[in-house]
Model the fold of this input.
Amino acid sequence: MQKFDAFTGNLAVATAMKQVNPDVCAAYPITPSTDIMMIFSDFVANGEVNTELVTVESEHSAMSACIGAALAGGRVMTATSSAGLAYMWELLGVASGLRCSMIMTCVNRALSAPLNIHCDHSDAMGARDTGWIQIFSENAQEAYDNIIQAVRITEHRDVRLPVMVCLDGFIISHSYEKMQYMEDKDVKDFIGEFKPYRSLLNVDKPETFGAMVLPNYYMEFKRQVREGMENARQVILEIGKEFGDKFGRYYSYFEEYMLEDAEVVFVVMSSAAGTVKHVVNNLRKRGVKAGVLKPRVFRPFPHVEASRVLRNAKFICVLDRAETFGGEGGPLYLEIKSALQTDKNNVPVVSRIFGLGQRDFLPIHVENLYEEIEAFFKTGKIKMFDYVNVRE
Amino acid sequence: MKTLEIRWHGRGGQGTVTAAKTLGESMIETPLYFQAFPEYGPERMGAPVKAYNIISDEKILTHCPVVNPNVIVVVDPSLIYSENFLEGSTEDADVILNTAKYPTEIRKDLNIIGRKLYTVDANKISLECLGRVIPNTPMLGALLRVTQVLPLETFLNHVKHTFTHKKFSEKVILGNLEAIKRAYEEVKSE
Done:
């Protein structure tokens, strides 16, 4: 039995954490993820979970505590945003390199300077090459469902890599919407018991963790992280399907929205995908064959599958909520462009950066983008790179 | 039903964000979809704040501020003369204002064309029911009367339930329920 209630994104994540009941949580709250640990610490204080809540003095220490607990064989979770994630950066590669199973919620927020507490994806994108699986959520429901699936993904024996579940700061983290949630027992059954592959506390089989490795072995460790990431592809699909069979909401690498016959395709992640879908509905009413590809899994990136679903597109506009400053386009654009190459697809594809520091991204902005594309079909001219809703 | 796109104008500390949240949460009593979200900035007591609700019988896809509201609620009387609360609204919008004045006076003062204007003295109601000026709950009563989005009884039961859950005192709960009921009755149209 599932029930409906009003949830913010942060409440949805805290609720999923309560139902997962991790062994250890390290907490150093930062806006806009603060609520998660605030709510979760209530669950701890009320005895609703058995979690050891470790309050640390920085995000660097939060991630260090998570790594230690994960290596000891615990089920481990934390949450952060923006500068918090940036401050963890050194340890992110340690977590993946030591093959730690853990789940971190990243409530996406811009990086300084100038100081800004609002949403964009520059925090998570800064961590895209650290060996973490990255899953992006459009709304509270997806954030909740993703956290529960992440437990299975990160603990899968063939994966054993940390998972970062992202949701948009404020836009999702602080907005109330209708969400369906499962009973504690059903979540418990779905995630099962955690049986660590290796454990620091296994005195019968003592092992060394985090030893120094010279050039003769370092590269093999990193090759194995890639192997875990490659294995994750199948695991993510299987768990997404199993979750759907059980709870009725199916998950894959991405959502295809009116994509089958779409000629104009917008590629966009997280909450903005909803706004684009809304405009695509209106374009469809006018007879325009538009569609949306919403990647959910950014690491590992589904290149082959993305190129397959983009095969019929006549124009692709990739929307990024993060900059690469000097790159050809946004991070998602770069992935999509290289994905198209796997299929020798030369369809025109442009990069548009939107919503940095939560600059408004409204339906009118998507409509304007479509007008630019419509003009391109007549004139053959369009900017390859541009910003959306920015002052000159 | 017509999708309701509601924009709230208030000042920090008046419970404007809580009002939007309470309205959103109360929709759980219906099969409708809803969103409730504040506009976050530096949080300062007394500074103008906005909050939004979208209520629809279809799944809500957009995740962005309401720029073309069809219901506007001004929680603080002083904002009526200092903020362009009609921005982005069309002439068929419902506008609900916290003021002791009549809608016709406001229309004349601000030279408003079109729109349906409603007024309610939420400060007075709040003061009499709660002993303090917290005009958010009476404004919810006025909004319910104007939009008819939820039966008054259902909403009152929801508020009673959530306020009890929040461990508010009996006095505060009854005061708020009375304030909602009074505003529902006392809201003035043209």
Q: What stands out?
A: The mean pLDDT of chain B is 95. The first strand of chain B starts at residue 4 and ends at 11.
